[in-house]
Amino acid sequence: MSDFRNGYSIPATADMSVDAGLRSFMLGVYNKVALGLLVSAVLAYVTGSVPAVRDLLFATQVFPDGVTRLTGYTLLGMIVAFSPLVILLGSNFVMKNPTSGGASALYWLIVALIGASMGTVVLLYTGTSVVQTFLITAAAFGGLSLFGYTTKKDLTGIGSFLIMGVIGLIIASVVNIFLQSGMMQMIISIAGVLIFAGLTAYDTQRLKMTYYALGGNQTAMSVATSYGALSLYINFINMFQFLLMLFGGRR
Fold first, then answer.
1. Rounded CA gap, 159 and 87, in Å?
2. Do the beta carbons of residue 232 and residue 200 sit within 8 Å?
3. Model pTM?
4. What pLDDT was estimated at residue 25?
5. What is the DSSP string of 1-54?
């Protein structure tokens, strides 16, 4: 599980009228998110289905029913799985003044790593449940993002609370690696869905306010497009994974 928040401030007031520039900015963000999800899906399929690639990342076993199931990670698989969080945390220190190219490279690197690590989804869940959960996540994501885009309520306070919730989720998930509690995992999954659902609305509103705060600076907006896409992409991926944990049909 990963998260990323950029440092753009939200102005005290903003012209909430919808104009061509704002539509273009938001469309650029959503196009990048959609392409990132497509790339992730392809990589997940390759790492979960192609034996030569799969065996580099995951330990598997063929069970008596003939189904190949995940039993663990290889060393390389663990590196790929945990590197997005390390890179995101490190980028806060390394990329103090990010360029358009640097922000875009960060986005695609994270997308590639998360997509590769999501071969576990192919190995753990049936294809039908993966597709159904993806469609449910997409519908929820669209509705939540629309709410964040149109609401006049300031979500800043809620967003700060939810970001603290992400930290709590990470700590609880690490603890449960050792406890292996099914009940705790269910609680974590429910909380995860709610937290990242809220963050989807919050990040959408934050992006809208960022557009006004940047005042037409094209270079800064290009950076914001990549960072905004990264935040929304991570929200989507986490909602999808937590919903799979709750409702996905296992292989």
1. 23
2. yes
3. 0.90
4. 94
5. -------PPPPS-------HHHHHHHHHHHHHHHHHHHHHHHHHHHHHH-HHHH
